[in-house]
Amino acid sequence: MRIVSGIQPTGNLHLGNYLGAIRNWVRLQEQVTAEGGECFFFIADLHAISMPHDASQLAGATREIAAAVIACGVDANKSAVFNQAQVPAHAELQWLLNGTARMGWMNRMTQFKDKSGKNREGASVALFTYPVLQAADVLLYQATHVPVGEDQKQHLELARDIAQKFNNDFASEEDPVFTLPDPMIPPEAARIMSLRDGTAKMSKSDPSEMSRINLNDDPDTMLKKIKKAKTDPEPLPSEAKGLEGRPEALNLVSIYASVAEKSVADVLAEFGGEGFGKFKPALAELLVEHLRPISERFNELKKDEEQIDAILARGAFRAREAAAPTLANAYSALGLLR
Ligand code: TYM
Questions:
Q1: What is the CATH number of the domain that holds 9?
Q2: Cβ–Cβ < 8 Å for 155, 146
Q3: Pairing with 269, which of 14, 59, 137, 303 sits 20 to 30 Å away (CA)?
Q4: Does the residue 215 lie in any domain?
Q5: Whose CA is nearest to atom 22 of ligand 1?
C-alpha cells in the first residue's frame, strides 16, 4: 500500500480535518509501515496560492500546520512529511497532466463553483486547475489509497480519470505510468458539519469561530462552543432513525461517536431520552480529554521552528526521491526530449 494525502495551510486545524482525515493518516501509517508500505503526507502550500493570500504569513502557516499534523500523531520517522513547494515535481507533473485533463471535467468540479462563487471571471486560473495539481500530488507517488473527507471525493475521481486517460493515450496496458488511487473516507466522520448550521460543513473558511472546534482551542473555549452549538428542543432519540431531519443533533452525536470510536447506535443507547443539557457537557468533556495531549504537543512543537524545518526538509528529500521515477516516465511517455 502507498498512502498519500495533503492538507492546506490555511487557518487552524479543526475537528473536521482531524476526524475526517488526519486520524486516518495516523492509523494507516502504523498499519502500512508495519507491512513495508510507505506514507507521504504533505502541506498543500502550492494549493494555497489559488486564493488571495498573505505572502508574509504563508511560511509560518505551513510550519504551523506541519506541527499540528505531527501533534496529531503523524510520525516523521515513519511517514514522509513535507510541503509541496520543496518538491518541484508536483508543479511539473501538473503541467504534464494539463494536457490530459479535459475542460469539461474541470467545469464539473463543485469546489471551483463554490470557491469562485459569483465572481467566476475574477477567480484565479490556479483555482480552476487546482484539481489537476491534486491529481499530480497523488499520481506522482503511485498512491494506492488516499485518506480524505467526503468533500475531496470528486477531486479523487478526477485524479482517476486523468490517470486512466493518460495511461490509455500514452502507455500500454501492461506497463501503465500511473496507479489509479482509491479514496478512503471514514464512514462515521466523512463530513463533520458546522456547529452553527448542520447543513454546512465545518470549514476553515467559515467566518464564525463558533462554527468549528480548533484542535488547539483551550478547554473553556471548547465547552463554550459546544454549549452554544445549534440544536433543536427535542431529547435525543434512542435509535439512529430518530435523527433523520435533525442535522444538528446528528452532527453532535456523530462527533461523539467518532471521537469515542463507537457507533451512532451505541451512543444513542447511552444517551437516548436525554436532552442536550446532559449530552453537550458529556461531549465537551470527551473532546477536551481527547484533544488535550494533541494541543499540548502542538503548543510545544510550534515553538521549535528549526525542528519543523528539519522535518520538512527530510520529508521533502524522501518525496523527491520517490517522485523522480514516475515524473521521468511521464515526460518520456509524452515524447518530450530531455
Ligand atoms: P483541506 O485542507 O480542506 O482539508 C484537509 C482534509 O480534511 C478533510 N476535511 C473534512 N473531513 C470531514 N469533515 C469536514 N468538515 C472536513 N473538512 C475538511 C478534507 O476532506 C481533507 O481530507 N484539496 C485538499 C488538500 C489536498 C489533497 C491533495 C488531499 C491537496 N492535494 C491530495 C488529498 C490528496 C484540501 O483542500 O483539503
A1: 3.40.50.620
A2: no
A3: 14
A4: yes
A5: 148
Angle between helices 247-260 and 264-271 (to 10 degrees): 100
Is residue 195 very low, low, confident or very high in pLDDT (cuts 50, 70, 90)?
A: very high
Positions marked catalytic: 115, 201, 204
Q: Tell me, yes or no, whether 75 and 26 share the same domain.
A: yes
- Å from CA of 147 to ligand 1 middle: 9
Please give the pLDDT value at position 189. Answer: 86
Long-range contacts formed by 158-165: CB under 8 A, 24+ apart:
158/101, 158/105, 158/106, 158/109, 158/131, 158/134, 159/131, 159/134, 159/135, 161/105, 162/97, 162/100, 162/101, 162/105, 162/132, 162/135, 163/135, 163/139, 165/100, 165/102
Global pTM?
0.97
Pocket test for ligand 1, best of 27, 151, 154 (most atoms within 8 A of CB): 151
Centre of ligand 1 from the C-alpha of residue 79, in Å? 18
